[in-house]
């Protein structure tokens, strides 16, 4: 094939054949097709979309670009979840041990944060000694023993996606449903899980602001999973306001441990329970009492086992911020607005996230919220506390929070985007 012919075809709203897509992905992975050509192709896909068969072919071609794992010899079912990402989304931390505590293997290959959405590995690396990188042998041994593993994905899974995602990131072509769906699902299918629950976010802090587009993304991913023989379901969940009260790294670990101890913010507990029920139902544990497992220490024991197995000390003190700055209410009233995206950007600017892949994160940086939308507040009471290693960061963070939160009067509409779980 000639790549320019394929670009012409997609530019003019044509449909690419299986052979053409296989050739394109292979040639791009090997470097025969250049970044500038693939950038034109992804923009054509962004604008003109893909048919269902093309999305399936693209996903399969990306899987075939690398290794695939298999859990068949494990002797227990596997289930995994993927979130499309949000602000304060630490759900993997309490969820993986909760599900693993029922004797199910949870192979949770996770990533680091880039931009305003945090990364699960960055959060866990706040725990002294904890290691994200495991060999395949360590990974399998932990799945067999402790049951739950949260670790970095090896570079062998779907290398075509790694290259393509980096290209999309710098060419304005991330937010295309065929590209997001094939990117996420190629990694999850290559990973070899037998079941998968997708937490597809909509709203201010999500990739997809609009619930209808999120639904389309969810349906596309569920179809890809089922076509590949992975039991896949999706929940559509609200990311208009930050999840829980902690946005950052170490503070999100602390909040997750509260949930594992039977407490924690109501929304974090609710979503953890809802996702755990879905994951367990897929592997035959429809009757699992997940609430009891949070309340009676069963999930906490699994968490301690998982952290220790990866060199972490579950009892160690977490990093403390060097500097803190409290923002207080300037009047009595009701908090009617707390928009996720600006709070995510502020936490990032405080040092909780990174601007470039190679940057480190500051584990104690971030934001602790003291009120959520709908809460009554009194003048002078703290609304949120920012943490950073350098005080100069507070001003930049406050700039991004301008207009992001608002105190109104009793009876005013609360802008929280509605229920946490939309369907
Ligand atoms: N996460 C991914 O892995 N890929 C995307 O395209 C978007 C989010």
TrEMBL record:
Give the Pfam families listed for this entry.
Glycos_trans_3N (PF02885), Glycos_transf_3 (PF00591), PYNP_C (PF07831)
Record-level GO cellular component terms = cytosol
Keyword flag Glycosyltransferase:
yes
Q: Where is the Pyrimidine nucleoside phosphorylase C-terminal domain?
A: 334-408
Q: What keywords is this UniProt entry annotated with?
A: Glycosyltransferase, Transferase
Q: Which GO terms describe its biological process?
A: pyrimidine nucleobase metabolic process; pyrimidine nucleoside metabolic process
User: Which top-rank group of organisms is this from?
Assistant: Bacteria
Drop me one GO molecular function for this one: thymidine phosphorylase activity
Q: Which SUPFAM superfamilies match?
A: Nucleoside phosphorylase/phosphoribosyltransferase catalytic domain (SSF52418), Nucleoside phosphorylase/phosphoribosyltransferase N-terminal domain (SSF47648), Pyrimidine nucleoside phosphorylase C-terminal domain (SSF54680)
Gene3D superfamilies the record matches: Nucleoside phosphorylase/phosphoribosyltransferase catalytic domain, Pyrimidine nucleoside phosphorylase-like, C-terminal domain, Transferase, Pyrimidine Nucleoside Phosphorylase, Chain C
What InterPro entries is this protein classified in?
Glycosyl_Trfase_fam3, Glycosyl_Trfase_fam3_N_dom, Glycosyl_Trfase_fam3_N_dom_sf, Nuc_phospho_transferase, PYNP-like_C_sf, PYNP_C, Pyrmidine_PPas_bac/euk, Pyrmidine_PPase_CS
PANTHER family in the cross-refs: THYMIDINE PHOSPHORYLASE
Q: How does it assemble?
A: Homodimer.
User: What family does this chain come from, according to its entry?
Assistant: Belongs to the thymidine/pyrimidine-nucleoside phosphorylase family.
Q: What is this protein called?
A: Thymidine phosphorylase
């Amino acid at each position: 094939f000639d790549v320019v012919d394929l670009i012409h075809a997609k530019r003019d709203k044509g449909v690419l054949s299986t052979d053409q897509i296989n050739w394109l992905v292979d040639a791009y992975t090997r470097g025969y097709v250049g970044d500038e050509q693939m950038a034109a192709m992804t923009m054509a896909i962004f604008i003109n979309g893909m048919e269902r068969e093309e999305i399936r072919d693209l996903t399969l071609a990306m899987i075939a670009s690398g290794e695939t794992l298999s859990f068949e010899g494990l002797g227990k079912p596997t289930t995994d979840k993927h979130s499309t990402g949000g602000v304060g989304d630490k759900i993997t931390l309490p969820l993986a041990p909760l599900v693993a505590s029922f004797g199910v293997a949870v192979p949770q290959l996770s990533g680091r944060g880039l931009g305003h959405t945090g990364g699960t590995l960055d959060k866990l690396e706040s725990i002294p000694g904890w290691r994200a990188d495991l060999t395949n042998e360590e990974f399998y041994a932990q799945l067999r023993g402790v049951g739950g593993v949260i670790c970095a994905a090896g570079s062998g899974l779907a290398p075509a996606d790694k290259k393509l995602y980096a290209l999309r990131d710098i060419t304005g072509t991330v937010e295309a449903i065929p590209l997001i769906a094939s990117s996420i699902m190629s990694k999850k299918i290559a990973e070899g899980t037998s079941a998968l629950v997708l937490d597809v976010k909509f709203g201010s802090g999500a990739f997809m602001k609009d619930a209808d587009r999120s639904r389309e993304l969810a349906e596309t991913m569920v179809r890809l999973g089922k076509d590949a023989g992975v039991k896949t379901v999706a929940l559509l969940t609200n990311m208009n306001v930050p999840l829980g009260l902690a946005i950052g790294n170490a503070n999100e670990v602390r909040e997750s441990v509260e949930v594992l101890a039977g407490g924690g913010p109501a929304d974090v507990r609710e979503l953890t329970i809802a996702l755990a029920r879905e994951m367990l139902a897929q592997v035959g544990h429809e009757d699992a009492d997940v609430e009891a497992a949070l309340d009676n220490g069963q999930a906490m024991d699994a968490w301690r086992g998982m952290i220790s197995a990866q060199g972490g000390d579950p009892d160690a003190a977490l990093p403390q911020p060097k500097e803190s700055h409290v923002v207080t209410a300037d009047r009595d009233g009701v908090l009617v607005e707390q928009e996720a995206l600006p709070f995510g950007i502020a936490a990032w600017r405080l040092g909780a996230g990174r601007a470039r892949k190679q940057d480190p994160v500051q584990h104690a940086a971030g934001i602790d919220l003291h009120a959520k939308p709908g809460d009554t507040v009194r003048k002078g009471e703290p609304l949120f506390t920012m943490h950073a290693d350098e005080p100069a960061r507070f001003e930049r963070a406050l700039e991004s929070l301008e207009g992001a939160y608002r105190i109104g009067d009793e009876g005013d509409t609360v802008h929280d985007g509605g229920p946490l779980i939309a369907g």
